[in-house]
């Protein structure tokens, strides 16, 4: 500021008024100061700005998932791209990090807020009786939940109807003639997993279907292991629904390695469509939605919340079923291997 003041022939106070867009200088002087600041490559100091007006000029996202699964998880990559695409409109950085557990995540929020490192956070993967919600309310830290508005307290949520998506899948499979349907779900502690599980079980009962759910961690390894275990059952499912695309691709590969035909012997459905679903053969039927737009909507909501606006929940469009080659009517050879009609060992 001193350098700019000397070059412009004005006081440091005048420079401060101009750079912060406050009254106190004439418009020609303001333009001259801004031109010199640009020429000198001046940038605002975020720490100083936080001290002066309490704003950090950044938002935060903490993800409590294993790095090995996050690195190949298209959902989060698309979500983050949507968030960042919106925040870049006003040059707001996204502070992204990972946590070992919820206690570490809460400690990070307390530290960020005490130091004014961020102006608000995106809260993902809500759990039952989530310990983060009351802490964020106590801190008064602006936050937007990306997920269903259940157990969110006073925090606004951006969400889509998972229960409606589950029903769309099961009704489609039932119309094709499937009566034994399994689901490879995500971690049971997650709120969205609970919502999907309740919808899956309830809808299956209504439709007169035999259903089974196996818990996994979204990784390809557990998706494949769960698939082999399901298909080793004396009465295996004729269709399997997976809670993410990574598990669905691994499940497809596992079924084919057992000699099963997809979809004649077993149909496969993935949650959250991605490029992965179209790169395999047959291409995967999937629940599709614009995840980047979902992230952008959450970013706009957090910007408004951090700006002091009191906002309610906003519902995004529910996922729609995109039908591809991995789903069809159950064939006569369902549950059998090509060639010998035998099933190999069960995976525990």
Radius of gyration: 26 Å
Q: Give the CATH H-level superfamily of the largest domain.
A: Response regulator
Summed over residues and divided by their number, the pLDDT gives a mean of 90
- Looking at the structure, the CATH topology of the largest domain is Rossmann fold
N/C terminus separation = 68 Å
Strand content: 5-15%
- Briefly note the structural class of the backbone: alpha/beta
Portion of residues in helices?
40-55%
Main beta-sheet strand count, sense and barrel state: 6 strands, parallel
Helix tally equals 14
Shape: elongated
CATH secondary-structure class of the largest domain: Alpha Beta
Number of strands: 12
- Which residues form runs of ≥5 with pLDDT under 50? 332-348
For the record, the count of structural domains works out to 3
Strand arrangement across the biggest beta sheet: 2-1-3-4-5-11
SSE arrangement, N to C: HHHHEHHEHEHEEHEHEHEHEHEHEE
Task: Give the topology, please.
Layout: H1 2-8, H2 12-19, H3 27-40, H4 46-53, E1 59-63, H5 67-70, H6 74-87, E2 94-98, H7 102-115, E3 121-123, H8 132-139, E4 143-146, E5 157-159, H9 162-176, E6 180-185, H10 191-207, E7 210-215, H11 220-231, E8 239-242, H12 245-257, E9 267-271, H13 275-279, E10 285-288, H14 291-306, E11 314-315, E12 320-322
Parallel strand pairs: 1-2, 1-3, 3-4, 4-5, 5-11, 6-7, 6-8, 8-9, 9-10
Antiparallel strand pairs: 10-12
Structural commentary:
This protein has 348 residues and is of the alpha/beta class. The chain folds into three domains: 2-43, lambda repressor-like DNA-binding domains (434 Repressor (Amino-terminal Domain), Orthogonal Bundle), CATH 1.10.260; 59-159 and 292-317, 3-Layer(aba) Sandwich (Rossmann fold); 162-284, 3-Layer(aba) Sandwich (Rossmann fold). It has 14 helices and twelve strands. The strands form two sheets. The protein has a six-stranded parallel β-sheet, covered by helices on one side. Helix 6 crosses helix 14 (291-306) and helix 11 crosses helix 12. The longest helix has 17 residues, at 191-207. It is elongated, with a radius of gyration of 26 Å. It starts with a helix and ends in a 26-residue tail after the last strand. The relative contact order is 0.12. The model is unreliable at 332-348 (pLDDT under 50). Residues 328-338 have a biased composition (Gly residues). Residues 1-53 form the HTH lacI-type domain. Keywords: DNA-binding, Transcription, Transcription regulation.
